[in-house]
Amino acid sequence: MPDARFFQALSPLSVAQLAETIGGRVERGGERMIASVAPLSDADGGAIAFLADRKLVAALRSSRAGCVIVGEAAVADAPADAAVIVSGEAQAAWARASLRLHRTLELDQAITVAEAAEDDTVVVEPGAIIGQGVRIGRGSRICAGAVIGPGVQIGRDCRIGPHASIGFALIGDRVRILAGARIGEPGFGAAWSKDGPVDIPQLGRVILQDGVTVGANTCIDRGAYADTVIGENSKIDNLVQIGHNCIIGRNALMAAHTGISGSVTVGDNVMFGGRAGVGDHITIGEGARIAAGGGVLADVPAGETWSGYPAKPIRQSLREAVWLAKQAAGKTRDKGRTDG
Fold first, then answer.
1. Residues of 238-258 as b/e, b for ≥16 C-beta within 10 angstroms?
2. pLDDT (tens digit per residue) in 52-97
3. Nearest to 85 by CA among 96, 95, 72
């Protein structure tokens, strides 16, 4: 179930009501009541899940979901005790169901410093806004113009920079978030439908562990259902993008303009040079290094240094660069002889 500090649970609906609302045909179990959405692996008897990729049929068969949304070809693979909705656009239907069962808590009313602060050592500068349910630990400072959304928890000795915005987040001690950073915005995700792309609701959180630094104008998206996590003492430069569901280990270093796509897992002590980019669902092992401008499209083993686009082990990448340079130089010489 999504964290109640950030998401409101709406009234449960029957499978039949959901099918009518989201577009689909009830195969069985129309009377069952559903209260939440979840992935196949996390769903319980009160949740609705979906299958959009046949590679996940094993997860469908073992799911404990109360209801599943599947295509016609996967009906036989649905768990015997689950209600079934048949849809040709299962993920989009699931996204619509999410909107009927969950709602983000909005910043409808601000609270005072005294209501949010652990004690009188907390400083909130002029123009900062604090949402309901926020807690701020001893010795922390919220700078001018910052916006702290409902339910956010901020640890001790933190500094939230001017005009930063934080929502759907749990923040440890000694965390520094610099000016203009955006923490907890929805990650980028859309599902195909016959009526065009449908936004997939993002029901997870951002967790920044102790000692993290987030640079100016950096964006860290909240998880789609699970959490986006930045490990202890990681240091993130200005203008970095970290997508939803990423797990970044401890002591990571990310130079400016690094871009991490969704669902990337990064081990401890990994370094990224400026403008490095990582494709989605990639794993980067402990102690690896990605050179500036590297474009990572495959898993990187622990301890290795990769460079280039697409990124490869650095020795291989440099050999290829030298070979290409020689080939280009040779063709230039040959052309010169011909012209002469």
1. bbbbbbbbbbbbbbbbbbbbb
2. 888 899 999 999 999 999 999 999 999 999 999 999 999 999 999 9
3. 72
Which of 290, 164, 151 minimizes the C-alpha distance to 216?
Answer: 164
**Which one of 102, 244, 257, 281 is the catalytic residue?**
244
Q: Measure the CA–CA gap between 200 and 269, rounded to whole angstroms.
A: 32
Q: Using CB atoms within 10 A of its CB, is residue 79 exposed (0-12), middle (13-18) or buried (19+)?
A: middle
pLDDT attached to residue 123: 98
pLDDT of the residue at 221: 98
Among 168, 163, 139, 165, smallest CA distance to 152 is for: 168
CB-CB contact of 226 with 264 (8 Å): no
Do the beta carbons of residue 205 and residue 185 sit within 8 Å?
no
Residue 16 CA to chain centroid, in angstroms? 31
Q: Is 244 a catalytic residue?
A: yes
Sheet containing 169-171: give its strands across. 135-136, 153-154, 169-171, 206-208, 228-230, 247-248, 265-266, 283-284
- Per-10-residue mean pLDDT, the chain, length 340: 95 97 95 96 95 91 96 95 96 96 96 96 98 98 98 98 98 98 95 92 97 98 96 98 98 98 98 98 98 97 96 90 82 60
* Spatial contact of 87 and 48, defined as CB atoms under 8 Å apart: no
